[in-house]
């Protein structure tokens, strides 16, 4: 039996131990990297955040969300039958089986180190994202006739590209359902499990597609090539967003879908009223196509109701941006803010967004009124620009914990920066056209130099002193302006870290390599020391 070390006991500060137990260790003593099982990036045990925050994280985030994962399936799926459909889908589709059980690990990683109101505000955003995903999943599986889904629901469902704004179908929401096809099988799975889409990329390249174009397009095509697509829709609306590089894979998808299809293009240069009018005609064409194929009728009142509800969400988003820009009391971390905004703006109005916004408003108002510094270890206020690595959404959390880099705003969050008028059909249609043009990765990634360089105005607006410049290695558009950004960074004396990645394909640049690049910049250029050295280097290649 090992003898007690009386000398160690004698030198122990029991008062500090008690304080750390009750309130959690201060940031510099947390050693978050020691939570990981070596070689995996998975947790040995849950993080101790002090009594109050640990209980909140366990009960109101981890346990609550696991409960909601089940409850949402039952409620949204329509009862036990919907749960059976979900189980069928999980067994049938590779992306579903590999993603569902990794969700809470993904949430944990993105909330790592968070305390107090920042923990609460960020967690509610993830609740909204998870619910929105389950809305789409249950809708797909309940209509999937290959799984014995309801053919009547199938008859009244329009499938569409994930990058096509769901609000296009607002006039028919009382009569039909629209579901983005690739949102769950591709976009969501990349974030939750960074291994999931790799086989789809390989399948597209095995067909003969070259490996250097955008892997997003390849992954979406590979899902079809691997026969991993639910059959839940009668007709389909496609778009060339995010870039015209997606057109080639859209052709492959068209062959595989083999159903009535309406192509709804988005212009590359859209600062032109004639182009806007043409875009408006494309929306009207999609409406006519929907009426003809699904047997529904345009409902102006339904369109106005949904747009006004969406405008309410936008107004609160502006309030959040104002707090983020002008105070230290913004209770939402970079990844929660970005993903929630992308889902909300792209999918369209849902009840969960209003529920979450009501919760977040109370938290944010408290932070502002009490002047709570929600991210007290902030050394640099960061704006993230261009298209992010989908396989490493948690980099924002890691960068704050390790280096004090606080991501205030992301480029994709700023895309749908507008309300839509509902005072007349003409004004409404023109605003919808502009909203459609301002889709993710469109306006400020391939929308012309004046929009790409909106970075400078937003950097000033949000009081940021550093840029995290995403360097999507296979995006021909952004690669073409790499040198222009370099020139501007030097001329404006801006600290910018280039983060190379390949959207969903972690094999080109791993998460560890991304961390090494940030570490090198902070050591050599900024001359700073890490807040938590245990996070400098760890192996998470095999983790989700």
What does this structure look like?
The protein has helices at 6-10, 14-23, 51-77, 80-92, 94-97, 103-110, 116-143, 151-155, 183-192, 198-207, 215-225, 246-257, 273-294, 300-326, 334-347, 351-369, 395-403, 425-437, 443-446, 449-452, 455-461, 476-479, 482-492, 511-524; strands at 157-160, 177-180, 235-238, 261-263, 380-385, 405-410, 466-472, 495-501. It is α/β, with parallel strands linked by helices and 544 residues long. The protein has one domain. The strands form two sheets. Strands 2-1-3-4 form a four-stranded parallel sheet, sandwiched between helices. Helix 12 links the parallel strand 3 (235-238) and strand 4. Helix 4 (80-92) crosses helix 7 and helix 13 (273-294) crosses helix 18 (425-437).
Question: Key features?
Answer:
544 residues; four-stranded parallel beta sheet
Characterize this entry briefly:
With 544 residues, this protein is of the alpha/beta class. It has 24 helices and eight strands.
Give the end-to-end Cα distance, rounded to a whole number of Å.
40 Å
User: How many domains?
Assistant: 1
How would you write the strand order of the largest sheet?
2-1-3-4
**Assembly context of the chains:** single chain
Number of strands: 8
- The low-confidence parts are none
Proportion of residues in extended strands: 5-15%
Helix % is 40-55%
Largest sheet: 4 strands, parallel
Structural class: alpha/beta
Principal-axes geometry comes out as globular
Average pLDDT works out at: 90
Tally the helices: 24
């Amino acid at each position: 039996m090992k003898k007690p070390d009386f000398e160690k006991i004698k030198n122990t500060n029991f008062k500090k131990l008690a304080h750390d137990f009750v309130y959690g260790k201060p940031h510099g003593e947390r050693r978050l990297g020691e939570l990981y099982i070596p070689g995996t990036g998975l947790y040995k045990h849950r993080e101790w955040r002090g009594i109050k925050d640990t209980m909140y994280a366990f009960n109101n985030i981890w346990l609550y969300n696991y409960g909601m994962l089940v409850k949402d399936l039952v409620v949204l799926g329509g009862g036990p039958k919907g749960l059976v459909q979900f189980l069928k889908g999980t067994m049938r589709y590779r992306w579903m089986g590999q993603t569902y059980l990794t969700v809470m690990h993904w949430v944990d990683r993105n909330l790592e180190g968070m305390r107090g109101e920042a923990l609460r505000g960020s967690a509610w955003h993830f609740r909204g994202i998870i619910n929105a995903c389950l809305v789409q999943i249950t809708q797909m599986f309940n209509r999937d006739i290959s799984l014995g889904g309801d053919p009547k629901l199938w008859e009244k469902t329009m499938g569409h590209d994930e990058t096509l704004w769901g609000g296009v179908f607002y006039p028919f929401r009382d009569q039909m359902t629209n579901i983005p096809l690739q949102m769950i099988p591709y976009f969501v799975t990349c974030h939750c499990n960074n291994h999931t889409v790799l086989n789809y990329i390989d399948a597209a390249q095995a067909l003969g597609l070259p490996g250097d174009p955008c892997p997003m397009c390849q992954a979406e095509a590979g899902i079809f090539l691997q026969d991993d697509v639910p059959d839940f829709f009668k007709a389909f609306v496609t778009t060339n967003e995010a870039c015209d590089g997606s057109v080639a894979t859209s052709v492959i998808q068209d062959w595989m879908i083999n159903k009535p299809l309406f192509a709804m293009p988005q212009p590359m240069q859209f600062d032109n009223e004639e182009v806007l009018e043409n875009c408006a005609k494309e929306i009207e064409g999609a409406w006519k196509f929907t009426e003809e194929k699904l047997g529904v009728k345009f409902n102006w009142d339904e369109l106005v109701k949904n747009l006004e509800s969406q405008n309410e969400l936008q107004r609160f988003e502006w309030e959040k941006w104002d707090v983020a820009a002008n105070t230290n009391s913004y209770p939402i971390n970079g990844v929660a803010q970005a993903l929630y905004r992308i889902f909300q703006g792209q999918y369209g109005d849902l009840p969960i967004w209003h529920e979450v916004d009501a919760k977040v408003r109370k938290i944010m108002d408290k932070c502002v009124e009490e002047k709570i510094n929600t991210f007290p270890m902030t050394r640099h206020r960061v704006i993230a620009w261009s298209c992010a690595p989908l396989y490493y959404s948690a980099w924002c959390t890691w960068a704050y914990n390790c280096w004090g880099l606080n991501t205030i705003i992301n480029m994709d969050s700023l895309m749908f920066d507008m309300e839509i008028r509902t005072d007349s059909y003409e004004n409404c249609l023109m605003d919808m056209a502009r909203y459609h043009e301002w889709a993710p990765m469109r306006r400020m990634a391939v929308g012309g130099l004046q929009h790409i360089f909106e970075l400078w105005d937003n950097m000033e607006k949000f009081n940021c002193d550093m840029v995290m410049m995403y360097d999507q290695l296979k995006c021909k558009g952004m690669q073409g302006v790499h040198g222009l950004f370099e020139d501007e960074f030097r001329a404006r004396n801006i600290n910018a870290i280039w983060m190379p990645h390949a959207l969903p394909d972690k094999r080109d640049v791993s998460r560890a390599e991304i961390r090494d690049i940030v570490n090198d910049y902070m050591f050599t250029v900024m001359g700073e020391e890490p807040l938590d050295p245990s996070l400098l280097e760890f192996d998470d290649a095999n983790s989700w």
